[in-house]
Write a structure and sequence with these properties.
The complex is a heterodimer.
Chain A (H helix, E strand, L loop, with lengths): L1 E11 L4 E11 L3 E5 L6 H8 L7 E6 L8 H6 E4 L11 H11 L5 H10 L13 H15 L3 E5 L7 H17 L3 E5 L3 H4 L5 E6 L2 E7 H5 L2 E7 H8 L4 E7 L3 E7 L4 H9 L3 E4 L2 H8 L10 H9 L1
Parallel strand pairs in A: 3-7, 3-8, 5-6, 6-7
Antiparallel strand pairs in A: 1-2, 1-4, 8-9, 10-12, 10-13, 11-12
Helix pairs in contact in A: 4-5
Chain B lengths: L10 H14 L12 H8 L3 H13 L3 E4 L3 E4 L3 H27 L4 H19 L1
Antiparallel strand pairs in B: 1-2
Helix pairs in contact in B: 1-3, 2-3
The chains are: A alpha/beta, B mainly alpha.
Chain lengths: 305, 128
């Protein structure tokens, strides 16, 4: 069975379409990264999947059921973000105990071990935690719940580099022992690349692409060389990004469908190849038209005057 | 081995090459069971699907064979296959790259052959 299925999904806020005819299908027991610019619709999609928001029209199914107001989906899904609202009279340890009562797969031993590892005090309260500590605690809840569909919305907000590394490791370890469907959105895609099986890139409320991480990493390639040398090669290629430096140096990102012969000839011509990270590519392809030079344009405008 | 995540080489190829090296070093002998995709995922902190892709690649090339339900094992002539493959592909590519760079530096065939000869001599002298 599919873990997630969306068809022509639409969600409109007062002024803006957050989800615009979104179609998506995700198999069970995969770790899937959800990428996209701010405002692309990631959070809206994840909240609808968790049953926290109601869709306007279209079909959305989690394990074959419509999530909104559904007890089955609610018991089998957890949604973790950086605005978790836990009852403020409860101590951290009491929150974990409540988690155990609610989630039938909950692993309390794992929860307590992680709790100790990250140096929490049992009597602490959630609203007393620093930003990074709060995210760390939420992450523990998300992992310990062992929900068949676990959704992390920006789980690493505020975490320092060491804790993020621990989080990725803990996530993988627990997933290997207890495979489940994990959907994550993150602004640190490059740090998570090797953990993800698939990447879904959202843009303006719909799916821009959905592909295996291995394919995405070889989907494009960076070329560096003299502008005059590069230009003939770049014709008829799909160009994702161009950046000029120095007098006549150019960096190009193109779709990687070069034949071995082309690669060989380009090397002979002195063109250098470099990999393009998945996160960079996601940024390049979702850039709005007419602002090719990015934020530099904002600054150059005043210089031109 | 440490994975090179910034390189052009996909992770699953690096995993496959590491297993090949283990076979060449006799750390994995013929008919011995190879690490499972989960073990490899844990070792290298990668998604198990990526690790599986590396194992499948080696199985497709005949370096590993499948025992249903038991996992993947090292083929009898795995070592020879890996050496042939590295000679015909990897080494050939390295030589091509060497010649490209030599041409960029406007070196003659004689010069580059001399360099290779010297390097070879140095190498064999050191090993004596």
């Amino acid at each position: 069975m599919k873990a997630i299925k969306c068809k022509d999904l639409i969600k409109r806020y007062r002024r803006k379409k957050a989800l615009d005819n979104l179609n998506l299908s995700i198999e069970e027991n995969r770790i899937v990264g959800l990428a996209g610019r701010n405002g692309a619709g990631k959070t809206t999609l994840m909240k609808i999947l968790a049953g926290l928001l109601k869709e306007q029209s279209g079909i959305v199914e989690v394990y074959g059921r419509r999530p909104f107001n559904n007890l089955f989906v609610s018991a089998n899904t957890i949604y973790i973000d950086d605005q978790m609202n836990f009852p403020s009279p409860l101590t951290l340890i009491e929150i974990l105990e409540e988690g155990q009562r609610f989630y039938y797969n909950w692993d309390h031993e794992l929860a307590l071990s992680l709790f100790n590892y990250f140096g929490f005090h049992p009597k602490q309260r959630h609203n007393e935690l620093s930003k990074g500590k709060e995210s760390t605690f939420n992450m523990i809840v998300g992992l310990a719940s062992r929900s068949p569909l676990t959704i992390f919305d920006e789980p690493t907000t505020g975490m320092d580099a060491a804790v993020r590394k621990d989080f990725y490791r803990a996530l993988l370890k627990d997933y290997l022992n207890h495979p489940r469907t994990i959907l994550l959105s993150t602004h640190y895609l490059e740090e998570m690349e090797d953990l993800l099986e698939e990447v879904v890139l959202m843009h303006n409320g719909s799916i821009f692409f959905h592909m295996p991480m291995d394919d995405l990493k070889t989907y494009s390639i960076g070329l560096t060389g003299k502008r005059t040398v590069l230009e003939p090669w770049a014709q008829e290629k799909e160009i994702f990004y161009t950046h000029d430096t120095g007098v006549d140096d150019r960096y190009l990102v193109i779709k990687n469908n070069l034949s071995d012969k082309e690669v060989e000839d380009m090397k002979q011509a002195g063109i250098r190849f470099s990999p393009v990270s998945a996160s960079d590519l996601c940024v390049y392809v979702t850039d709005e038209k007419g602002r090719e030079r990015g934020v530099d344009d904002v600054f150059n405008r005043s210089a031109d005057r | 081995m440490i994975l090179n995540t910034d390189g052009l080489k996909p992770i699953y190829i690096q995993v496959a090459e590491w297993i090949e090296s283990e076979i060449l070093n006799d750390n994995l002998k013929k008919d011995e069971k190879v690490y499972s995709q989960y073990k490899l995922a844990d070792m290298y902190n990668i998604n198990p699907a990526t690790a599986a892709k590396g194992l499948t690649k080696l199985a497709d090339e005949g370096i590993l064979y499948d025992k249903r339900g038991l996992g993947k094992f090292v083929s009898t002539d795995a070592k020879q296959m890996i050496m042939d493959k590295r000679k015909n592909q990897t080494l050939k590519q390295l030589v091509n790259d060497l010649i490209t760079e030599a041409c960029n530096l406007e070196m003659s065939e004689k010069e580059i052959l001399q360099m290779v000869r010297n390097a070879w001599k140095g190498e064999t002298n050191e090993s004596h």
